Amino acid sequence: MRIRTMLLASAAFLVTGAAQATDLEVTHWWTSGGEAAAVAEFAKAFDATGNKWIDGAIAGSGGTARPIMISRITGGDPMGATQFNHGRQAEELVEAGLMQDLTEVAERENWAEVVHPKSLLDSCTFEGRIYCVPVNIHSWQWIWLSHKAYADAGVAVPTNWDEFVAAAPKLREAGKIPLAMGNQSWQSNGAFGVMLVALGGIDLWTKVNVDKDAEAAGGPEMAKVFQAAAQAREFSEGSNVQDWNQATNLVITGQAGAQIMGDWAQGEFQVAGQTAGEDYSCLPGLGVHEIISTGGDAFYFPKLDDAEKTAAQLELASVMLSKETQVAFNLKKGSLPVRGDVDLQAANDCMKKGLEILASGAILPDGNQVLSPDTLGQIDDLMVEFWKDTSITAEDAQARYAAIIADAD
Question: Who's near 96: CB < 8 A, 6+ residues apart?
């Protein structure tokens, strides 16, 4: 009897071992230098389990990658895991029953207690079941400033938006671009969203994005935000780059004074060997309202007709949220961890500033969490058109924006 038990145990071990030696394709859009360094931490941690991370990076932004990912999943060629942003981007795929249920892992590892803020796990939850693992908190609410650019122009590094505006002419005189901006819709829309929070205030942002208040979107307070956006459009003239990291590089090299961009920009400064507080400064909320938006990334796991790959999917979900992986990944990515119980003593000054704001509770949802992909797409299209075509006045753009909010879902 004892021999038979040992043989059964050995067989179980062999089956488990085989299940742990599984290739899993993971699709994402992290291809810049800082992003690649961060995603390598995920791959290393997963490979250490005996499985193999098969990298499925898709060049371009999330707007380029998501349709490809969705097409593969709905077309019967699913990957093992795929990146989406926190919010509603994968909502229809979950509703269609195409995504793996992670509730068992989440309950076993007590995700509800360790994930902070709670809204991140809520974004992964559908009808009481959990379908994704949040891996970071990325906030759009930052402006990054080049110390070199301002030193070359002979002016002090700004500490808020008004000082930035006042210093812009001096930067132009010194041959600098006051505001770096890539030519992609999500960049111009993101920058506009930062100005809305910083210059319009939290109440206005909430009325427009959460309450879908078209009157507020077309009102006098929002008009001030659109005027600031028109001014920022002038500051970005000459910033002839496409990708966000190319615009970040203009700041890193001192060709541009600043960039409004999410905290993922930190990864690029880090790869370039620059130090926060010495080579560049970061101002949350444009130095006006210190607040963090809880955007970021989550991974979903499409259903696969393969028991070994399914087991590997659950193991990857667990690895991504482990303390060790959360620290290693987010230090490289420039984002904040979703776990509130990790040690980030190695964080730079900008990340520590973000952690302090997060701990204070000064947070708001990301646009992806409150607006549908269709509404966001319409706003993206409007903003990139407004940014590129100076014949579109702030008043015209605001009227079109208010109409979008009136029909928002």
Answer: 74
pTM: 0.79
Residue that the structure tokens 């991504």 belong to: 320
Is the N-terminal amide bond of 284 cis, ω within 30° of 0? no
The rounded radius of gyration (Å) of the Cα atoms in the chain is 22
Nearest to 338 by CA among 28, 81, 120, 30: 120
Instruction: Write out the two tokens for 159.
Output: 């500490």
In Å, what is the CA distance from 70 to each residue of 77, 238, 317, 385? Answer: 10, 36, 20, 26
Six token digits for residue 163: 């000082």
| Residue whose pair of structure tokens reads 């995504």 in the numeric block | 99
| Tens of pLDDT, residues 320-371 | 999 999 999 998 998 889 998 887 777 888 888 988 898 898 988 877 778 8
User: Any idea which fold 21-138+295-358 has?
Assistant: D-Maltodextrin-Binding Protein; domain 2 (3.40.190)
Question: 29-87 pLDDT, tens per residue?
Answer: 999 888 999 999 999 999 999 999 999 999 888 888 999 999 999 999 999 999 998 87
Q: Where in the chain is the domain with CATH 3.40.190.10?
A: 21-138+295-358, 142-293+371-406
The residue count of the chain comes to 409
